[in-house]
Amino acid sequence: YNTIDMTYSLGHSYESIIESFGFPVITRFKLEPLNKQKAERILAGLLSSRHAEMKFHYGKKSHIYEDLKRESSEVEFLSDRVRNQKNSMFYMDLSFRISGRDPLDLKENAERFETAMNYLGIVNRRISNLNQRTLRGSFSLKRRKDNPYIIDSRSASSILPIYPTPNPGRGVLVGIDSINEKPVIIDSFQNESFNSVILGETGSGKSFFSKIFLRRSIASGNAQKIFIVDPLNEYSAGMFGPGSVEIILRKGDFLDLSGEGDLDRELISPLASIVSGTIFGDDRMKKEIENDIILFSGENPDEKNSEILHRIWNKYGLNSGGSKTFNVINSKSWMSDDVKVVIFKTNILEEETSESLLPELILSIFAYSVNNPETRKMLVIDEAHLALSNSHASGILSNLSRHSRHYMLSIISITQSLDDLFAHQENRSLLANTASIFVFRTRSMKEEYSKMLNLEGFEEPDFHSLLGGKTVDYSECFLIRRKRLIKLRIISTENERKKAK
User: Fold this and answer.
1) DSSP result, 332-392
2) 494 — alpha (psi -120 to 50), left (phi > 0) or beta?
3) % of the chain beyond a pLDDT of 90
4) H-type helices in 177-264, by residue range?
5) 90: which strand partners?
6) Does residue 104 sit in the same domain as residue 201?
7) Which pLDDT tens digit goes with each residue over 78-96?
8) CA nearest 94: which of 131, 65, 118, 123?
9) Nearest to residue 307, comparing CAs of 295, 325, 290?
C-alpha cells in the first residue's frame, strides 16, 4: 500500500494500531528533499487550485468553502516559512507491506488493515499483490514517479514514531509534542509548584482542553477531588460521570467546609496568615487574627465554625457582599470520598453577586485543603479575570498560590489574556508560583511578557496562528514549563468530545 493522504492530528498513533494486528506489517518511510524554488512552485500551484475551488463553492450552503479557506491559509503560512527558509519541503513515500500464511489469511489481513487505516483517516492505495519474483524490488529506495506525496518537515516529524526519552510512570496526557511526536504527560503534584495557568481567546480550544484534562485527571486518579468555580455555566456534572455534583451559589451564601468540632489550630494559623497577607500584604496581623478566631470560638460554644469564620470575614472586610446575615450551605452531602468533582455555579451576569462570593469561596476551599492535606485536590477557576480583578479574591488567590503545595492543592486559573494576571500588583505572584502555562491562540501577547514567561532565547512563538475551535477536530497550544517551550497538539477520543460539549 502507498499512502495518499492522512489526517494531520493523527500523528504516529497508527503505529500502535499496526502493532495490535497480530500479523506482520513492514513500514517504509522515505524522504527526498525538494529545493526551495521547486517547493515554492508546488505550493503556488496548490494555492491556485484552492482559490479556484473556493470561487466555485462561494455562497453555497456547505462546509467545503470554509475547509478550502482554512487550507488556503495553511498553504500561505507554509509558503511564507519556505520562502524565509524556516521550513523545508520533501517528497515522501510511506508504504506498508502486509503478509499472510496463505491467500485467504492474506486477504483477511489486508481487509483488516484497510478498515483500520480508513477509520484512522489514512488513505492508502493498494499497489499490487506481490509474488516471490517481484518481492525483491518491492521496497526499492528509488522514489516512485507517480503521484508523489509532498510534505513539509514539521508534518514529516509528526508521523515518525520517535521517543527520545521514557515517559513518566504517572500523570495525565496533555497532548503530543509537535516536534518529536512524544506524548507529553504531566503530574500536577510533582513539581516545585502545583499550579497552572491556561490562556487563550474565545474559541481557541482552551475550555475544551480544560474539560478533557480534568476528566483525565479524575479518571486516572491523579486528582482525588476537583473544585470548579464556573461563572459561565461551562461545566456540568454529566461531563465527569458519577461522583459529580453542582452547587448553585447566590449572594449571601456561605460554604461550610471547615468540618465538625472545634476549629483546629492547624487550620487557624494558615488561615490567619492568608487573611493577613491579603489585607496587609504581610503577616503583621496574623497573631491578632488568630486571637480573634480563638476568642470568637470561646464566646459561644454552640456557635458553628461557619459562623465564626463569617464573623472574621466581616471584621476584616473580606465579605464583599457586606451582608450581616448569610445562608450556610452544609457540605456533608458532597464532602464524602464518593464525591470527586464539585462544580460551583456563580452567575456572571450578576457581577456583584459573582464577585462577592469569590473571597469566601476560595477561603472555604483552602480550609478544606488544610483539613485534608493528603488528598490531591484541584481548584479550577474559570473566567479567572473575575477573581483577579477583585482585590480581596486576588489577594487570597495570590497568597494561597504560594502555600498550595503544602496542602496538596493545585490551582488552575483559566483566562483569556496575560493582561488579566496584572490587574493588581499581587497577581504577579500567581504567575511566579505557576509550574505550567498553556497558551492557546491569542492576539494579545505583548512583547514585554516574554521575560515574565521565560521565553528569552526562543524564536518568537506564533501565538495568533495556533489552530483550535469548533471548525477543527483538534487544537494546538504552547506549553511553557521548566524553562522549556513545547508546541502541543491536543488530541481526544470521540467519547471525550461528546462529554466536553
Assistant:
1) GGG-STT--EEEEE--TTSHHHHHHHHHHHHHHHHHHHHH-TTS-EEEEESSTHHHHTSHH
2) alpha
3) 9
4) 206-220
5) 33, 151
6) no
7) 788 788 776 678 887 888 8
8) 123
9) 325
- In sign, the C-alpha dihedral spanning 305, 311, 314, 316 is negative
Longest dimension (CA), the chain: 97
Instruction: Tell me the residue ranges of DSSP E strands in 46-100.
Output: 89-98
Residues 6 or more apart in contact with residue 499 via CB below 8 angstroms: 211, 215, 238, 239
pTM for the structure as a whole = 0.63
* CA 267 vs CA 207, 344, 373: distances in Å: 33, 23, 11
pLDDT of residue 492: 79
What nine digits make up the cell of 347? 452567575
Q: How far apart are CA 228 and CA 339, in angstroms?
A: 13
Task: Say yes or no: 64 and 209 in one domain.
Answer: no
Domain count, the chain: 2
Query: Which carries the bigger pLDDT value, residue 155 or residue 165?
Result: 155
CA atoms of 345 and 107, how far apart (whole Å)? 56
Amino acid at 372: N
C-alpha distances (whole Å) from 354 to each of 49, 201, 231, 334 are: 52, 22, 7, 22
List Cα–Cα distances, 338 to 38, 341, 476, in angstroms: 62, 9, 34
Domain boundary among 140, 158, 176: 158
Whether 272 maps to a domain, the answer reads no
